[in-house]
Amino acid sequence: NSPETPIFHKGSEVYGLFEGRQAIREAGKVLVVEGYMDVVALAQFDIHYAIATLGTATTPLHARTLLRQTDKLYYCFDGDNAGRKAAWRALENTLEALTDGKEVAFLFLPEGEDPDTWVRANGREAFEDFLQREAVPLSAFLIRELARNINLATREGQAKLLKEAIPLLKKMASAPLLAALIERQLGESIGMRQEELHATIHPAARGKWQKNEGRPIPPNRKQPSVSRVMARALMLRPDLACRIDTKLLPSGDPNAQLLGRISTWLTQLPAPVNPALILESVRGQEFEQDIVALQSEIIDLSEDWDPEAEFNGGLVQLGATWKNKRYEELSRLPLDQLSSPEREELQSLRKA
User: Fold this and answer.
1) What H or E segment, with its residue span, contains residue 202?
2) Angle (nearest 5°) at CA 129 between 177 and 111
């Protein structure tokens, strides 16, 4: 419990992290407990992936540090009212550090228990089984706590729920897929369509809605361009990026130019590339918001949507469009103005 100094900052340091790094990597998770002695007691029972903050609440910096170590972050608190309040503070401070592909959950021990007493009474296997069985995912805890003491049968209660949810969802800019799924669940709980809820949370999207007898309805949706569909496919199958020939991309289509930039960028990332790595690596890139939008669009696609089939179909369409355009360009010119290779190309395009 030393005081803050110019070189010691409680809000950025973690007790037991240095000693537990190897165990955290091997276990694939890290457990945050409230006290130093809880870390010591768990280590005595061969649970070495537990750490503790230095007498402070979990900070956003703590969360970022821990989520760099592993994809699964568990918080352990007492099950009383004080424990729930501490868990809620940890949730609020974790949202900005959260990215899609990471998992955060909350374990609440029986009232009067702490990890030290619980593991001594029940043993390691029982503790780890309890952790896996009883930990509450962040999304479920967020919605449960927001709805606590709110009457969702009334419009006033529903409005209060949304008012409290909106600033939390806006913190999840680095986890757009999870945020969209939470939006959907919130919409279902109050009988509100996700598109309408999204427009409420993100006012910039309101222009996409029209009013009809007081009810918001979506406008007629245009089919996405071939390039847009292919860019969506790359969010799920980034390994396909190397198959794009940028000369086939029409210069007047913004989505085609975006597809070209994204495909070139994806081929430069270290393999294997996955959605979580894409979101982590795109920060600071000029098309960061485009990537976020593309990954959000994937959520509304049907389960049988096949990214490779869509991508391959797009390649065929781009190739056919380019050949037609090229044929028109060459056929407009007099034959005596065409070079020998251009004549051969024209002849080949006529046969295609």
Assistant:
1) none
2) 90
Write out the residue range of the structural domain in which residue 308 sits. 228-351
Return averaged pLDDT per consecutive 10 residues of the chain, 352 residues in all: 60 82 93 91 94 83 89 91 90 92 93 90 94 92 87 85 91 90 84 78 58 45 79 90 87 86 90 78 84 78 80 84 77 80 77 58
CATH assignment of the domain containing 66: 3.40.1360.10
**Phi, psi angle pair for 327, to nearest 5°:** -65, -40
Q: How far, in Å, CA of 241 to CA of 259, rounded?
A: 9
E strand residue ranges, the chain? 14-15, 30-33, 50-53, 72-78, 103-109, 136-137, 210-212, 215-217
- Concatenating the DSSP letter of every residue in 332-349 gives HS-GGGS-HHHHHHHHHH
CA 260 to chain centre: 23
Please tell me the pTM assigned to this model: 0.58
Exposed, middle or buried: residue 156 (CB in 10 Å: 0-12, 13-18, 19+)?
A: exposed
Q: d(Cα 151, Cα 147) in Å, to the nearest integer?
A: 8
Residues 301 and 198 in one domain: no
CATH number of the domain residue 312 falls in: 1.10.860
Q: What is the pLDDT of residue 53?
A: 87
Whether residue 258 sits in one domain with residue 184:
no
**pLDDT at res. 11:** 61
Question: Do 56 and 3 meet the contact criterion of CB atoms below 8 Å apart?
Answer: no
21 with 89, same domain: the answer is yes
Q: Is residue 205 located within the same domain as residue 243?
A: no
* pLDDT for 75: 96
Total domains present in the chain: 3
Check residue 83 and give its pLDDT.
87
**pLDDT value for 219:** 46
